[in-house]
């Protein structure tokens, strides 16, 4: 059974920083992509950033230059360093791991709340 556990969310003032972590446990193929999504109240879930097991990254335009995604393959953990946070970054942040071997595998964490407010 695959489990993803996020941590690091909380309340931060505008301009502040947070670092999210997501640890994956269970049987996961080593070649995979790990993503961070977010969902604000009343809005659809959106992709924030992704990173492959080879280290290739991709960012949504609204976080470029502010957020950095990284991973530790030995620990099956993905991180999201969030700097220069804005009130509009307030959302529940979700971790996702996905890969394809004969069929699609897609796993989600439970989410961690990030609130940016003064």
Task: List the defining traits of the structure above.
4-stranded antiparallel sheet, mainly beta, 0% helix, 118 residues
Q: What level of helicity do the residues show?
A: under 10%
Instruction: Count the E strands.
Output: 11
- Compute the number of helices: 0
How would you classify the helix and strand content by structural class?
mainly beta
- Average pLDDT across residues? 96
Strand content: over 45%
Instruction: Report the span from N to C terminus.
Output: 40 Å
Order of helices and strands: EEEEEEEEEEE
- Low-pLDDT runs of 5+ residues are none
Summarize the entry for a quick read:
This protein has 118 residues and is mainly β.
Written overview of the protein:
- The protein has 118 residues and is an all-beta fold.
- 0% of the residues lie in helices and 57% in strands.
- It contains no helices and eleven strands.
- The protein has strands at residues 3-7, 10-12, 18-25, 33-39, 46-52, 57-59, 67-72, 77-82, 91-101, 103-108, 112-116.
- Strands 2, 4, 5, 6, 9, 10 and 11 form a seven-stranded mixed β-sheet that branches. It has a four-stranded antiparallel β-sheet with strand order 1-3-8-7, with no helix packed on it.
- Strand 7 and strand 8 (77-82) form a beta hairpin.
- The protein is globular and about 45 Å long.
- The mean pLDDT is 96.
